[in-house]
Amino acid sequence: MRHVISLLIENEAGALSRVSGLFSARGYNIESLTVAPTEDSSMSRMTIVTSGSDEIIEQITKQLNKLVEVIKVVDISESAHIERELMLVKVRASGKDREEMMRMTAIFRAHIIDVTESSYVIELTGNQRKLDAFVGALEPELILETVRSGITGIGRGDRVLKL
Amino acid sequence: MVLTGAEIVIRCLQEEKIEYVFGYPGGAVLYIYDALFNQKQVRHILVRHEQAAVHAADGFARSTETVGVALVTSGPGATNAVTGIATAYCDSIPMVIISGQVPTAAIGQDAFQEVDTVGITRPCVKHNFLVKDVRDIAATIKKAFHLAKTGRPGPVLVDIPKDVTMQKCAFEYPQEVSMRSYNPVVKGHQGQIRKAVQLLLEAKRPMIYAGGGIVLSDAAEQLTKLTRLLGFPITTTLMGLGGYPASDRQYLGMPGMHGTYEANMSMHFSDVLLAVGSRFDDRVIGNPAHFAEEPRKIIHVDIDPSSISKRVKVDVPIVGDLKEVLDEMIRQLEASPTRPDASALAVWWKQVEEWRRRDCMKFKNSDDIIKPQYVVQKLWEVTNGEAFVTSDVGQHQMWAAQYYRFDKPRRWLNSGGLGTMGVGLPYAMGAQLAHPGSQVACVTGEASIQMCIQELSTCKQFRLPIKIVNLNNRYLGMVRQWQELFHGERYSESYMDSLPDFAKLAEAYGHVGFRIDKPSDVEGALRDAFSRKNDLVFLDFQVDQTENVYPMVQGGKGLTEMILSSEDL
């Protein structure tokens, strides 16, 4: 089962490698991992997408909690939550493809954020499925380059991950 | 008071009341060694290899209730220390390791004797720090000691660049540590403890299974009281030996791969298993699927939540300090009007005694050739069961664990988790320094002892009258045993040729050495050795080369599928 784990960790040098090292040392999967400081710059928030049986997810949560610099760990996929990922796609855009690309951008409610004579950079935010769908909808030979941020997530409603 | 970083390091150790630091100097720690030179409170034990510094500090910690401290230089000093650190980590031993680092400006430049010590040690420490500002040294060392000894203990490394040890700042040692990210649970959950007590009172075939946590949390007294109150059979793991008196009737010996028949059968067929400070290790329960076949309720008490339901699904998890939790269990039991089910217990004990009558620890002694088990039995007799016994890793380790009966905790020092050959002599050094008047024996083999043999020199310098009991069978015995049983008797590289004359080698280091060939000389040699209060004596026992450790649960097999002796093969 796929899980989305959010955690707060001290914003110290090496904190990321403690987390990634834990996953590699114990053979856990990381589908994606995103990290950035929070509004309180002494803390970072990480979102890890992983998969495993209930027992493995329980161990992952416990092992993360055991890291001295980890402040809080929540499996946000246990209840209602929102996931978002940012993708930038550089596409060939010349001749009739320019119109087509603009249409696709509009349909997916994406934005064109860079324009040259022969290419666009399209910015798209959404859940994983939406991003996959967008890439699927483009003609493969028109895609020059893609980059995805990995998932970040937050609980819905009253659920708050805070110190 | 303004001090240099180096002086601050030493002042911190003084504040922590550290008696001994085990270490080895080098370029990056010269200022720290200079600061050490100018005071008398903290004594330095100069080892001959950094691995031994960490092991000795580890042995000191294991035999006391204190934190062991080691000091090493950058680069090879730190990498040599890694085996020691990993050994302590696997057995949750509280330690602080201070390592020198190249100057801050040189970090990342591939400087002389530079390695990423924090990176290399990250997976085998509880936590580690790189101190980049002299003003952070005191607070970091305070945190290191706090982390090392609280919660599930473990080694903590503090890496200090050379320039930081030269800079100056005002020294003040923090009185308290507060970390928002680190607050280990101490008190167990009341409701869970109540549930556990209820289960224990209803049990028909109960069993107590205690691990190293009992020793680490100094809860032997509580465990003994609880066990007697309940009247249940009890087993302690390799790491828990001495956590319950081995001479007691309720004690069934060690469980697991080389555990007793009665301990393994009782573990397997129990209906309620109380696990305290143990972790259902692969060497203890064998195949987890086989273990799970027999239905039983498991209560698991541990300070570390990640140890619970890791290998075996647990019914009543209790996170907390063992001392606190066991005290609360005792309180609730004493307050309860109900008593354990006496008639069910009588039936269960009848079964347990039947298993015990198999006498699985019997061995055929010989008048011609020294049996290693016999040496350990005699060691136990000669030392009245009161020695601090260290071991290395292999057959001799198992025989020491099986035949030396420990009645008190912190008397048995061995590398249970990592299984590090070479720990025996440095552990003995740490134990002897911690307990100067006590008998300290290092039970070892001719292979293991050679992994840290250079420490004989340290023992001479610091006059440590350790008794080395070398069970010399000219084989890597445990490897040979597995090759005999599972690899068609192809003894690939397990025979040791060209061994030194250990008695002479000991003499060359300035110690006393005996070689013992006959069973009739075993006791006399041991008595002679222990009567020499000021000498290190190296006893080189020439033992039976073919002896195997039994009982044995083969890897992948279940606890009830034991080989009891060579006749079972």
Name the features.
heterodimer, A: about 160 residues, alpha+beta, Alpha-Beta Plaits, five-stranded antiparallel β-sheet, four-stranded antiparallel β-sheet, 9 strands, B: alpha/beta, Rossmann fold, six-stranded parallel β-sheet, 19 strands, about 15% strand
Describe this structure in words.
The complex is a heterodimer of chains A (163) and B (569). Chain A has four helices and nine strands, in the order βαββαββαββαββ. Chain A has 163 residues and is of the alpha+beta class. In chain A, the strands form two sheets. In chain A, strands 5, 6, 7, 8 and 9 form a five-stranded antiparallel beta sheet that branches. Chain A has a four-stranded antiparallel beta sheet with strand order 2-3-1-4, covered by helices on one side. In chain A, a hairpin with a 5-residue loop joins strand 2 and strand 3 (43-51). The mean pLDDT of chain B is 97. In chain B, the strands form four sheets. Chain B has a six-stranded parallel beta sheet with strand order 3-2-4-5-7-6, sandwiched between helices. In chain B, strands 15-14-16-17-19-18 form a six-stranded parallel beta sheet, with helices on both faces. Chain B has a five-stranded parallel beta sheet with strand order 10-9-11-12-13, with helices on both faces. With 569 residues, chain B is of the alpha/beta class. Chain B folds into three domains: 2-170, Thiamin diphosphate (ThDP)-binding fold, Pyr/PP domains (Rossmann fold, 3-Layer(aba) Sandwich); 190-356, TPP-binding domain (Rossmann fold, 3-Layer(aba) Sandwich); 372-549, 3-Layer(aba) Sandwich (Rossmann fold), CATH 3.40.50. Chain B is 37% helix and 16% strand. The interface between A and B is medium-sized, with 20 and 18 residues.
